[in-house]
Input
Amino acid sequence: MNNNKTAQIGIIGGSGFYSFFEESGCPFETIEIETPYGNPSAPVTIGEISGKKVAFIPRHGKNHQFMPHLVNYRANVWALKSLGITRVISPCAAGSLQKHIKPGDFVICDQYVDWTDGRKNTFIEGPKCIHPSSADPYCPELRQTAIEQAEKLGITVHKKGTVVIINGPRFTTKAESQFFTNQGWEVINMSQYPEVHLVHELDMCPVTIALITDYDAGLIGNVPPVTHKEVMAVFKSNIDRLKKLLISIIDNIPVERKNCECHNVTHTS
Output
């Protein structure tokens, strides 16, 4: 892999978040990246924010053409690593599994539960035997920065939360949703695994910002089942707040990694 230090920070945009630099007037370039795992979801755009080079890639493609169970997560993450990136911010649309977490709130996840199947979920394919730790899957330093900046912007933010990742493309049944709620998990999503783990495997720091778009099916009675159209509408109405938060986070990320061990995940097995 050619770590040519083209960028320092990567952003993987979720549903409804398909571009980052175009609307801001910030100069940017678009580059095509080939990976050993095929093509990323889209060409990568690179611009400068707060004196830092930032690379952006839309998780589902420019036209949301890749469903969550068919996203080429390995290609997306490898493409960012090949640019020399050390931090990756992964905003996503998510449903709430708990009544106190409301649509429009942000959750800075600290744990995940993988409920997916059939996804290519590792770069580790031998011959060396490596068993990376996933005990603490999100970067504590980046999480703290995200929490502090959300609070400064007056965003309702939950400082921790477990996200359960379902395979999709279907939403949950009420029984499934009630089961997840009863486990005490806070957030439900279709894309955070294996994305976050792959970021970790390549020794980058991951942080997830879950933007809550709805209550999941089994949580509250007398509400219609969630639809993709509804999710997109709520996400779109909050996209400006999300972008302001991302810029604030980027502005406050330390140049050097000091308070995390993300760079050692595959070296301590």
